[in-house]
Fold these 2 entries.
Entry 1:
Amino acid sequence: MIVKAEFGVRSKEELVVQPFSSKVSRTALIQASESYRKAAESNEPLKPFRVTALRTERGVLYSRGQGFVKLFPDVQYTFSATSIQEDFTEELLSKPAFSFEIYGKKLLCELLKLEVVNHLDVSAQESRLYKVNFLTPTLLQFPRPRLKRKKNRYILFPYPPVMFSSLAQHWNRYFSPPVSRATGTRALYFFREVDYSLSPVTVRYDEGFVRGFVGWVLYSLEARKGSKLRADVRRLLAYANYVGVGKSRSVGFGEVIVKETS
């Protein structure tokens, strides 16, 4: 089961927050969900939660470079949270509205929408073309070689093998049947780029900076119709809408919207 919730956040005062605004989202969710609090404190990889950055009708709130983000009074900001844990639903319904504090200011948060889906029903609609919109800096990297230096090295283009590997690892951690055929270099041949518009972007996070990319890519799915390979790809594409893509997706990086297109 996959649970996706959308929240609204309002501040009564003007408030300056960190450059990547998911700090506010995560602070709010800790007040609403004990299971999320425990997961957030854990060092385990591939967490069963994903929390997005704040957004308005104009887009996601994050600052490029060294700037900060400012929240204005009585403006509704929204964010979403996805969980693989069943008790998440009960936690949210028991506390649909609450207040929380951050940076010495009190904010109000309320549950706006709750979606519960069976993971076996997760699949993108049949199409030849799929457009993947990367809303927040996406951090993808190839498998690390065995080197003493372990600094992350993120790529600035969403190559299908890397993207599908990221999604399959998360899916296989929590669900079955496992997805295996959609990964590897074969993805370069059955999921091909048709057009794209991407930009590299550097964002300050905690005490450092991360560099990823935002934008969109139009892909053509050329796996045989009715094949397990094609079904696996459609499943992973739909799953990306719930959990995001790449490293640090649990805190809002790699947020994507995948849509079928003609």
Note: The chain has two domains: 2-117, 122-261.
Entry 2:
Amino acid sequence: MRQRDAPVGVFVALIVLLAVIGIGILLYFRNTRIDFGDGELSRTTMFGRTTTVAVSDIGTVLSVRSLMAFMAPTTENVFVLDSAGRLVVRATDQQWTRTQMRSLVAATGQEPVVIEKPINSLAIRARYPLAVAWWEAHPFRTAFIAVGVFTVLFFAGYAVYTSDLRWMVPQFFAQWRFRLGFS
């Protein structure tokens, strides 16, 4: 790639990135759902994978009245955990009505553990380690790691783009590089 072709490469990379983000959003809204009834709870992911759990395997139902998140409004959440403490289903009042969340709790047949006071994800993770993901409980560490990874990838990509590549790739690829027109 020549130096003057760089803006075209950046433009193509941005188009691909926007397409991947758009496909992810489409898959999320098309496929993701939670179904309950007939003694079962099932969750379908954005990629269409369905996990079904019998109501008899549910260990804890946690109802959080006010979950605080960094720079976001507080939300009401219902966490359904299996007998090992792993998250089965999580419902928030941003996507569910309170009536639907009460129906979900009623479908489990369990008496929920209710947390009335405002609480954050880190405190929930301290009490129920598998209910909240690490990245949600530690948003600043997650952001620091993500920025670090993207910075390293950016500088590695820049180094590959501006270098001769012979020191970075095996000799086999280096000889084919000229045959493919990457000189």
Note: The longest strand covers residues 58-69.
